[in-house]
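Protocol step 4 of 5: obtain the predicted structure for the target chain.
Materials: sequence only (see below). No template structures provided, no constraints applied. The aim of this step is simply to have a reference model before the mutagenesis design in step 5. Sequence pasted as it appears in the construct record:
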Amino acid sequence: MEKNIRIIYSDGSSENTTANIDTVCPHCGVPIDPTILATYSNALSTETRGTFGMFLSCTNSECKKYHVQAFSFTRYSKGHPIEVGEKVPYTYKPMLKNDLPEEINNEFKDFSAIYNQSLEAESMALDQIAGVGFRKSLEFLIKSYAIKMSPESKVSIEKETLTNTIKNRYNDFPKIQKLAELATWIGNDETHFVKKHTAIDIQDMKRFIRSASLFIAADMDVDFATSYIAEDKAKQKQQ
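Step 4 output (structure tokens):
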């Protein structure tokens, strides 16, 4: 997007020009018409080359964060207008969105916190540690729901391996077993020197975690509906 800008140089003088700015917020990833708050250059107005930076604000109401876009410039000689050159690369990584069911995030706070931190690591291109985090989040999800289903077995579930929890506590949920088992394979690969399963990666693991969370959320909804119907029928009998 072509924008009119006013550059203020380090010697206090200024100059009007135009620059083609990016219209996608680097924080939220939403296409916007950003607000230019100020444009400064650490060069003197007499210099024939330099850079300038624009301080911008996101116009997305759910973001409104600030960022910088910078450009190089040249001028033929002192007194001539500048020619805006290439954009100076700045590295921003939009935070990846947690798209898991709301009831899962609300019910299993520890799982949600670990999953969100893993997303943050991934968004910062920390791919060597993000996968380990997703593996840990998977364990918290699977064990937390197993404990919710069988609170009397809490201590045993906490101590047993994730593989045993999947194998022994989810016999009534074979689809969750398959999703969790394969996600565990990927997660274990993230902690090993040599990967066994090179055809699948953490994107697949995230997909399997999401699918498992959807099954768990659905089962929780069924439990709620069943309980509500039973209570309502009991009340009707008492009337």
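Step 4 remarks: The beta strands are 2-8, 14-20, 35-40, 49-57, 66-75, 82-88. Residues 202-238 form the longest helix (37 residues).
Proceed to step 5.
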